[in-house]
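Quick log. Single chain, no ligands specified.
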Amino acid sequence: MVRPSFHGREIMERTASLEGITVIDFTAMMAGPFATRMLADCGADVIKLEPLTGDYMRYRSPIRNGRSAYYGQMNSGKKSVAIDLKSPEGRAIALDLVSRADAIVENYRPEVMAGLGLDYDTLHKQFPRLVYCSITGFGQKGERARDPAYAPIIHAASGYDMAHLKYNEGLERPATTGIFTADVISAIYAFGAIQTALLHRERFGVGQHVDVTLIDAMLNMLVYEMQEAQFQTTQRRPLYQPLKAADGFVMAAPVNQKNFEGLAIAIGHPEWNQDPRFSTITAREHNWGMLMELIEEWTLSRPAAECEATLMRAGVPCSRYKTVGDLLAEPAMIDRGTFEEVSDGSGPFSIPRQPFTFSDAPVVSRPHVSDLGEDTAGVLGGMLGMDEARIADLRARKVLL
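-> predicted structure:
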């Protein structure tokens, strides 16, 4: 079939799973935009409502000719409508757009959307089939519901950072945070939950509120730690650590018996398979630190690539440590189609494709990143029938950009 054109580009392909689903995106920063980008890649028509100053992430580096590639990765394939939601007319326009939507996604503190009259309780009365997703740090109710919560705050509050500190003996403080795990994990939960709610609506005829919290997302990562906190154990848990090589580091994971036996032979120590310190899984767990030190004696004298190749040939899970830049240039990653190219007004750049595919439906990034307010006239004219004179008047009065 021929899918409708997006910014003038017609795409010949199978029908996308969320084709025909309209999402109004009130999100900013990272968690919300990451979730709605996934919906867009699955075919949803995502309309991003931004303040007249734009999503803050539009101004985060790396910046090329005034445009952020960081923002672009999380917002490709969406239409940008710049609107002043603090004005009565702006709220009325937003409400008109919501009336034509299947889902809303927002990631503000609870009182923000309520103050705009765009909260779930208000909208559900008017549009009972609407799926409404909120992404917050600590949820909609309770003592911490209104606390501001960026990913680093959640990493600290959830036990995640302290778990890492415990596993890294010798560190005097939790590690510096630069990768916003809480945002990405909560976005993935939101992506799945929104679709579950849409399926529920199709089966039972009613929409609902999806409440996604960053702190609960992080707690669900801490599976062992959650149970250890309740049931103390004296058994030492094996920890996987970087092994220094001649020119870098490698990670080896001889998890099961077969892995270990292959490793012992590959690095020239077949006698370890009969050594009572290492010959069983239980023995290795009790002597894990010693085992890692002995393996590192072997890796230290070899390049990381050689260590990886030797152990992988022996059936031992192993990888040298790489940078993202390494992966962007790696032929194997390029050949498997790991990266897609999108473009904004400052030129093309690469983003990773979604980590899932469907056998009978496409999952693909639409290649265009809209400038702030680029789609305002097209969306309001196409969806609401608003004429050019009306749009020009609203722009002159700073309701629209």
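The two ends are 35 Å apart (CA to CA).
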